[in-house]
Amino acid sequence: MPRRTIGHLEKKKRTEGAEISSSTPASKVVKKSRRELSGVKGDLKHQSVAPSPEVFAAMEHYDKVHWMTSEEDQTTYKINQDVMIVPNSKDIRHNKKNAPAELGWEDLWYGRILDIRGDGEVDPEVWFHIAWYYSPKWFMTVKAKETRLKDLGRLEMIFAPEHQDIIHAHTLNGVEIVYKFKEEDFDAEDIPNESFYTRSTYDTTKRIWLDPPPKRHCLCLETFKLWEKQKRVLHYCPRQGCHKWYHESCLKESKLYQTHDRVDLFEKEWQVSFDEDQFEKIVTEVAGLPREAGVYTAKYEGLSPVVLAYARQPIVKGGDHRVHGNMGAVLRARWIVHQAVRRGVMPPTDYEKYVEYRPEPEDWDSDSDSDAESEGSAVETAIDENEQHEHIDPLPGKKRKRPSESSVQGPTSMETELPLEPRVSGIKYEHTMDGRQYLAYKCPNCREII
Ligand SMILES: [Zn+2]
Ligand SMILES: [Zn+2]
After folding, report:
1. How far is CA 362 from CA 30, 349, 365, 400, in A?
2. If you average pLDDT over residues 234-254, what whole number do you get?
3. Which stretch, 370-374, 379-383, 436-440, has highest mean pLDDT?
4. What pLDDT sits at residue 361?
5. How many A from CA of 392 to the centre of ligand 2?
6. Which of 4, 77, 87, 187, by CA, is between 20 and 30 Å from 432?
7. CB 347 within 8 A of CB 334
8. From the CA of 273, which ligand is nearest?
9. Model pLDDT, residue 28
10. Residue 196 C-alpha to ligand 1 middle, in angstroms?
11. What are the tens digits of pLDDT across the range 430-448?
């Protein structure tokens, strides 16, 4: 007979597991609006006094806890998961007359589970050791150097690993993924719309950044923020000495653009913009791909139209171009085109596939645990090696299938290495028009077409 631990919250958990796959682009995944109420009532009546760190350390350790708020609603909490926490000071019913009895999503607190311990009784008191995420407004109170509230996105979190607390299981309100936003990595995973995200880590004890604060871009010196209402698009200058992002709206305002009725004049400039020193990763990657021997002499006419189309577009991100934009696919295409046409290097075998699709990641996630397990005891104490590994970037709902066996055709074919999963950066790009003319923006720094 499994033991059940009944929580005291009236809980209404967000829908989790927004899946991103080639058939469901992340742009189509719409999460619950943050302006809606969470369904959580901030009137925790039974706040037990947290144990001291010494008392906590002496308690029995649990790898995971199945926590129930009703017979139907159960959540499994594990080490390294990000969770929603009901603020213990938010007794909002007493704040104002007619105040809503429920908290908004942004009123909840967020943390990462570092440890789970309890008193080992039949119906145990369970405590969580957590490290906090700071919301932008809360983060401003630490007065970190060079931080402006406007540098942080609406749903951005600053991770504060040194600010830790021991909280009771009653205060948890479900699992919430805080996506790791790797701004500099053009091959990083996309992030579902309206998700919480983090890119910076701050040590609140030593008052130093462990992962730097968001980088400022453009002429306006603003950061790139996800889920902006204005959906601003940014353009990148990939030339030596530049390597900067600029808002399309700022370039337009500064009259940094050209128009022409022939798009090929712009395409000529886009396709040659590549900095070998900066994008060494791509240079090395392409050099390692299999290719036929010989010298390439067929010029542009002999190259894949798909790859040429990628090479001949500006590098953009933001707005409809998503979190990482088209940079990965465009730069790969440009490098292959450049080497073939100017240096006579044979394009790699299946280079079209290489530009459009991504290779198999090394870390296939074989853990298929969901947070709705219905079997087992309320508290599991068995040590499971798989649960102990570092799992900083949980991305459930993004598990990918392995390439099917049928796609494997032979040991020398590229298809043995490349499952047909489109690169995040391989999105389609439509050229910008200004009336009946094509429009291209210019870099404020080098003044070239970007
Ligand atoms: Zn700007
Ligand atoms: Zn430039």
Report:
1. 29, 22, 9, 12
2. 96
3. 436-440
4. 59
5. 35
6. 187
7. no
8. 2
9. 37
10. 23
11. 899 999 999 999 999 999 9
Q: Which helix (H) or strand (E) covers residue 199, if one does?
A: strand 197-203
The whole-model pTM stands at 0.77
Please write the tens of the pLDDT for every residue from 136-189.
999 999 999 888 999 999 999 999 999 999 999 888 888 999 999 999 999 999
Q: Where are the domains of the chain?
A: 5-214+363-388, 222-359+404-441
Among the bound ligands, the one closest to the CA of 450: 2
Ligand nearest to the CA of 219: 1
Contact status, residue 74 vs residue 68, Cβ threshold 8 Å: yes
Contact call for residues 38 and 107 (beta carbons, < 8 A): yes
More confident residue, 21 or 347: 347
Kindly report the average pLDDT of the chain as a whole number: 79
For residue 33, the model assigns a pLDDT of 42
The residue type found at 48 is: S
CB within 5 A of ion ligand 2: which residues? 237, 239, 242, 443, 445-446
* Of residues 85 and 391, more confidently modeled: 85
Dihedrals phi, psi of 221, to nearest 5 degrees: 50, 45
Report residue 165 CA to chain centroid gap.
Answer: 26
| Distance, CA of 345 to CA of 299 (rounded, Å) | 11
- For 14, 75, 357, the CA distances from 348, given in Å and listed in that order, are 46, 48, 14
Strand partners, 175: 83
* Owner of token pair 């494997």: 408
- Tell me the C-alpha distance between 217 and 228, whole Å: 15
Query: Ligand 1 centroid vs 258 CA: distance in angstroms?
Result: 18
Query: For residue range 406-417, what is the model confidence (pLDDT) as tens digits?
Result: 343 444 445 455
Residue 131 forms beta bridges with which residues?
112, 164
Q: Any idea of the CA torsion for 415, 416, 421, 425, to the nearest 10 degrees? A: -80
Q: Which two tokens stand for residue 194?
A: 């309206």
* Selection from 52, 191, 192, 221 nearest residue 127 by Cα: 52
CATH architecture of 5-214+363-388: Roll (2.30)
Q: Is 280 helix (H, G, I), strand (E, B) or coil?
A: helix
- In a 10 Å sphere around its CB, with 0-12 CB exposed, 13-18 middle and 19+ buried, how is residue 440 labelled? buried
Q: List residues bridging with 65 in a β-sheet.
A: 77, 379
Q: Which of 51-60, 84-93, 94-103 has the lowest mean pLDDT?
A: 94-103
Which residues touch 315 (CB under 8 Å, ≥6 apart)? 235, 236, 238, 325, 326, 327, 330, 331, 450
Distance of alpha carbon 373 from the chain centroid: 26
Q: Residue 250 C-alpha to ligand 1 middle, in angstroms? A: 5
What is the 138 CA–ligand 1 centroid distance (Å)? 26
